[in-house]
């Protein structure tokens, strides 16, 4: 689902998160904050988002932050895709007829388990499988 034109989330009384195609923080003390607060301050509680109405008339208020939730879902999908590729790259090592020493096989199995566990690690999805992802090493 895309949100037309603009979404604004009230993080707390000193911060909003605004998305007009590029999410950015608006903090108290800035000109942008005063403008956003004047428009949305009485409409939003912390953790709520104002979303431009589909009919273009005003804004709807929703709980949560849809733009961040969608971005996180995309990052998790990207992380899983990268993780699955790394798992596939070691599949051959588990074949019954593949010659591998027992200690190496144990290492491969531990590596693969760490890859499978990665999406549940605190901080996931990081950058969706990029350089900030703490990939396990074999």
Molecular structure report:
The chain is of the alpha+beta class. It folds into 2 domains: 7-64, no CATH class; 68-120. 36% of the residues lie in helices and 18% in strands. It has 3 helices and 5 strands. The protein has helices at residues 31-40, 66-88, 102-117, and strands at residues 7-12, 15-19, 24-27, 48-52, 59-63. The chain has a 5-stranded antiparallel β-sheet, covered by helices on one side. Strand 4 and strand 5 (59-63) form a beta hairpin. The two termini are 39 Å apart.
Tag the structure with descriptive keywords.
single chain; 138 residues; alpha+beta; five-stranded antiparallel beta sheet
Could you give a quick summary of the protein structure above?
With 138 residues, this protein is an alpha+beta fold. Helix content is 36%, strand content 18%.
Structural class: alpha+beta
| Proportion of residues in extended strands | 15-25%
Q: How does the major sheet shape up?
A: 5 strands, antiparallel
Q: Which regions contain 5 or more consecutive residues with pLDDT less than 50?
A: none
Number of separate strands: 5
Tally of domains: 2
Question: Average pLDDT, to the nearest integer?
Answer: 84
Q: What is the rounded Rg?
A: 22 Å
Q: How helical, in percent, are the residues?
A: 25-40%
What is the first-to-last residue Cα distance?
A: 39 Å
User: What is the N-to-C order of secondary-structure elements (H for helix, E for strand)?
Assistant: EEEHEEHH
Spatial sequence of strands, sheet with the most strands: 3-2-1-4-5
How many H/I helices? 3
